[in-house]
Amino acid sequence: MTEEIRFTLDGREVTAEAGETIWQAAKRAGVEIPHLCWLDAPGYRADGNCRACMVEVEGERTLAASCIRKPKDGMNVKTASERAAKARKMVFELLAADQPPQVRHPDPDSKFWKWAHELGVEGSRLPARERFTPDPSHAAIAVNLDACIQCNLCVRACREVQVNDVIGMALRGHEAKPVFDFDDPMGNSTCVACGECVQACPTGALYEKSLMDEQAQTRTVWPDKTVDSVCPYCGVGCQTKVSVKDNKIVQVDGREGPANENRLCVKGRFGFDYIRHPERLTTPLVRREDSPKRGDIQVDPRNPWEVFREATWEEALGRAAGGLRDIRDTHGGGALAGFGSAKGSNEEAYLFQKLVRQGFGTNNVDHCTRLCHASSVAALIEGIGSGGVTAPFTAVEDADCFIVIGARPEQNHPVAATYLKQAAKRGAKVIVIDPRGQELMRHASHPVRFKPGTDVALLNAMLHVIIEEKLYDEQYVQAHASGFEALKEKVAEFSPEAMAPVCGVEADYIREIARTYANAERAIIFWGMGISQHVHGTDNSRCLIALALTTGHVGRPGTGLHPLRGQNNVQGASDAGLIPMVFPDYQSVEDPDVRRRYEDAWGQPLDPNRGLTVVEIMDAIHEGEIRGMYILGENPAMSDPDQTHARAALAKLDHLVVQDIFLTETAWHADVVLPASAHAEKLGTYTNTNRQVQLGRPAVSPPGEARQDWELICEIARRIGLDWRYSGVPEVYEEMRALMPSLANIPWSRIEREGSVTYPADDEDEPGREILFGEGFPTKDGRGRIVPADLLPPDELPDADYPMVLTTGRLLEHWHTGAMTRRAGTLNDLEPEPVACMHPRDIERLGATAGESIRVETRRGAIDLTLRADRDVSAGMVFIPFCYGEAPANVLTNPQLDPFGKIPEFKFCAARVSRVPQAQAAE
Ligand SMILES: Nc1nc2c(c(=O)[nH]1)N[C@H]1C(S)=C(S)[C@@H](COP(=O)(O)OP(=O)(O)OC[C@H]3O[C@@H](n4cnc5c(=O)[nH]c(N)nc54)[C@H](O)[C@@H]3O)O[C@H]1N2
Ligand SMILES: Nc1nc2c(c(=O)[nH]1)N[C@H]1C(S)=C(S)[C@@H](COP(=O)(O)OP(=O)(O)OC[C@H]3O[C@@H](n4cnc5c(=O)[nH]c(N)nc54)[C@H](O)[C@@H]3O)O[C@H]1N2
Ligand SMILES: [Mo]
């Protein structure tokens, strides 16, 4: 039990909770003691080095640093005694003497100056010593160590909070200074620009360039307002504070959300300026009569006038809706399809699928989840009756073991990765399974590099060990699982010895990782695209589910299944029904009872058949089945596999409406382009990977004539004959909620009040349930179903013509198709050009050198990129990120689908690599 401590603070009786410091107890009692090296935020340890928080403890000869000193029963503490106040003032005077003068200070409004002013210290009359040359080498962060007070917060921020281990303290005493790696300029160091150090620094020695003068030495920008919102990038769902000056975002800081506790990554913190890029769409566009569509067209977004002309909203909306209506009326709803967006809000997703189902009269509505975790969700729904995560990633705090397989969280879910790395430091066993090396393997007790595409071999071998050595949880299996016997039979043929040559992991090591996971008290599995984006993606996920169900590692704190969801709202967009087989909350369109409920709600008969999926829709266009599309906030001309095929399909459409914030490669093929609002310009809810429904608030207004996405969906709806009237986003949310049991106790007002609510919640005043399925599963028999999986090879194996394996994925700084991040100044500065990564040995074998231009070819096409040496890429493989329009990876990738999740094999196809002759490369 926690015991309270009673002590006297400035003559008052106060209590401290066990473990609390004097500083913390004082704060709760309403007394804020000056402080610099102490940061009152989760994850920060007190260091007690700056002496700014000294207090007097009766009976003690020396003053005590209140940030580390814990009170004792009966202690008498004086924060305001003359001695303490004088000592504190002295600390500030000494520090101020060495600060640059306020008129040219990196941040005259910093915490340091705020306290200094409060204590009556106005800076030193002496000129500060010139000690350090400024370091402006980083794209986003200015380093002005003249303002550094050696408080060490940046080191703790970097090493202990974000666990990036870049910043250290060099030298001692007065000479001490923070250094990046081996005292490299920040811009050349391994810094990942999460900016945690900037947020923590009390003086502005580390500061955002976006708030400073050209030389990056003096602050010149002060925001007009700060808005609480949520990050637009990944599924982690970091809460943000967005600062705005003259309707322009000038700074983003982390806020204390449940998924980030003030932390951010480089994209969330520094990737905000894309919304003011000159290429932003600001007026509706209509295709010119004299500009025929062709799949191989290239449009310069800065000069689209050969292809498009400006139109009024009336004309654009009339044409957009008219074309869709005509196709529906002539060819039936089945000739239409829609792609909604996982970048948009829940309300937009709900309205979009309603428009397609009610207005177009078809279930042909899908979104990027199809290219993402569709196979994971198919396996989860089959296995445990629910597609969401069973536990938030923060549950890793309670785990003594976790597996990360086919995911790269440090790069793709960086803030989630901070929790994983902290758990590793705490001593949790970490099993990272990936063909490609990654930073997280440095923190792993069990790094496992294996052959790509052989997950089923490895995972079945682990299951073999678990069953053979009786490491499974017999009681759990008896009470909560079905299919165990069939699994036992299946994996009998998958001994580690038999699978070792298949997956390239030694039999003993397979046994060891199987034992480590199974014998853990609490273990959790995280997975990503390396599992899902295969023709056997559903089988891969089935094996993971089998691991959890046999060992009982689900339903308790520190256990669970967590597919790391990708887009900021992919969980929400899926929940809201942007899926061709199901209405909101995964209710089958083929179930007559379900359908009747929706027909009653929407007042008309609905299509009883499942619709087509993303890649199937592209095929159906080629077959002449689908003639018109509405695409909102997706860029399939870049993100779909076999791009030439996809672009030819888009060009073949009789009518294409694209609603986006940029003239994307997809929009090049449009008849009408509707300029929409970006994330920072709108109100809405977003559901992150942890099932936390959070509120995004508008910080700035849309540029030019750009309009709100949800309003545009309604405009189209009305023009195709629906009587839609919504007073605003909250009304849409409430309509959606009435149809979604998962949101039952989460009214709009609650999200507004609490900022983040986990679903499901049992009551309006009860917190949502983080850990699910302690008492069985929402399946027909209440049991989790184990589905054994067989070993299938990737669809296209290397051969004599195409001897390498091509794998694709992401970079930390870029987002998917680059639409946003290639237009974000800092991010594009950090990763400016298309790269292909290969192992140095393969580069040597090719007779090439890193930095030169190479050509990568597959049976579908060829692209040229700059060669980068990367020891993490296995020999025989080439890795390409898919964010570069000038060298689009998906010209190369294989569109072959997983039969259950209908996801293409982005992670594996046969390729060949050659050098590009110099003359050609220069062209
Ligand atoms: N910076 C950045 N972050 C992002 C995104 C982004 O575009 N940029 N996108 C977001 C989205 S939508 C998503 S879905 C997530 C994706 O996040 P992740 O799931 O981490 O995605 P990837 O980097 O594509 O692939 C993950 C890993 O799969 C491995 N892999 C490849 N083949 C295999 C295999 O056969 N077996 C196994 N076990 N592993 C394999 C790769 O080596 C890679 O390390 O990221 C989200 N976050
Ligand atoms: N080769 C390869 N291909 C892949 C993958 C891979 O690993 N390898 N991964 C796949 C995965 S996991 C995913 S999730 C998909 C992602 O594929 P997409 O979803 O197509 O990719 P994004 O670039 O995120 O596209 C989002 C679009 O929305 C626009 N947008 C952003 N905000 C807003 C807004 O508020 N309103 C509107 N109207 N538009 C907005 C952007 O400008 C952009 O055009 O890619 C898939 N493709
Ligand atoms: Mo994704």
Please write out the topology.
Elements (H helix, E strand, L loop, with lengths): L4 E5 L2 E5 L5 H7 L25 E4 L6 E2 L10 E3 L3 H16 L13 H8 L22 E3 L9 H9 L5 E4 L6 E4 L15 H5 L5 E3 L16 E6 L8 E7 L2 E7 L11 H5 L14 E3 L20 E3 L2 H19 L4 E4 L6 H15 L4 E2 L7 H11 L16 E5 L3 H4 L1 H13 L2 E5 L12 E3 L6 H14 L5 H7 E2 L1 H8 L4 H8 L3 H13 L3 E5 L1 H4 L4 H15 L8 E4 L6 H6 L6 E2 L3 E2 L3 H11 L11 H9 L5 E5 L3 H4 L3 H10 L2 E6 L11 E4 L8 E4 L4 E5 L12 H11 L9 H11 L8 H7 L1 E3 L25 E2 L18 E6 L15 H6 L4 E4 L1 H6 L7 E6 L2 E9 L7 E5 L12 E4 L6 E2 L3 E7 L2 H5 L1
Parallel strand pairs: 1-5, 15-16, 15-25, 17-18, 17-21, 18-19, 20-31, 21-22, 25-26, 26-27, 32-36, 33-35
Antiparallel strand pairs: 1-2, 3-4, 3-5, 6-9, 7-8, 10-11, 11-12, 13-14, 13-27, 23-24, 28-29, 29-30, 32-39, 33-36, 34-35, 34-39, 37-38
Helix pairs in contact: 7-24, 8-24, 8-25, 9-18, 12-15, 12-16, 12-18, 15-16, 21-23
The structure holds ligand MGD (2 copies) and molybdenum atom.
How would you describe what is shown here?
The strands form eleven sheets. Strands 14-13-27-26-25-15-16 form a seven-stranded mixed β-sheet. Strand 10 (225-230) and strand 11 (239-245) form a beta hairpin. It contains 29 helices and 39 strands. The radius of gyration is 29 Å and the shape is globular. Helix 9 (374-384) runs parallel beside helix 18 (537-551) and helix 12 crosses helix 16. Among the domains are: 330-372 and 569-759, Rossmann fold (3-Layer(aba) Sandwich); 390-563, 3-Layer(aba) Sandwich (Dimethylsulfoxide Reductase, domain 2), CATH 3.40.228.10; 804-915, Barwin-like endoglucanases (Beta Barrel), CATH 2.40.40.20. By secondary structure, the protein is of the alpha/beta class. The protein binds ligand MGD (2 copies) and molybdenum atom. One ligand MGD is lined by residues 234, 372, 405-408, 411-413, 433-436, 438, 452-453, 455, 528-531, 564, 566-567, 807, 809-810, 812, 814-816, 907. Residues 224-279 form the 4Fe-4S Mo/W bis-MGD-type domain.
